[in-house]
Specification:
Blueprint: H1 2-17, E1 28-29, E2 33-38, E3 43-45, E4 55-59, E5 62-66, E6 72-77, E7 83-89, E8 95-97, E9 105-111, E10 115-122
Antiparallel strand pairs: 1-4, 2-3, 2-10, 4-5, 5-8, 6-7, 6-9, 9-10
């Protein structure tokens, strides 16, 4: 019985940690990773988690959020890890327009208090 429960939990962790595929109409999928911050334990790093990954795609300067997702603070960071843009994304938001003055490759971060998702986008 324990082995069955462990197998089911492992399968759920795998499914929830898979990058989402984007609707082709909405542009290109943004592949996201997860960075966990737990200040109470003094531990930080990349971990496997049952935290559901948001489904994000990009077309030109518009990010699309498919399905349900949490509220996040969106950050764009340049190659020197400087935050060049920030915005709050509500759980009900389905898209956000990024400034057209931004061009190049950036790290996209979707931040909460305890963790953030990250991926690379090109504008």
């Amino acid at each position: 019985m324990r082995n069955l429960l462990f197998t089911v939990l492992l399968m759920l962790a795998f499914v929830y940690s898979m990058p989402a595929s984007a609707d082709p109409i909405m542009g290109d999928a943004v592949v996201l990773g997860l960075h966990w911050e737990d200040p109470s334990s003094g531990h930080s790093g990349v971990e496997r988690s049952l935290v559901p990954f948001p489904e994000v795609s990009i077309s030109s300067h518009v990010l699309y959020f498919m399905g349900s997702h949490a509220s996040f603070t969106l950050e764009l960071r340049d190659a020197s890890d400087t935050v060049v843009y920030t915005a709050y994304i509500y759980a009900t938001d389905t898209q956000v327009s990024l400034p057209t003055t931004l061009t190049g490759t950036y790290e996209l971060r979707l931040c909460t208090d305890d963790y953030y998702f990250y991926g690379e986008i090109t504008l």
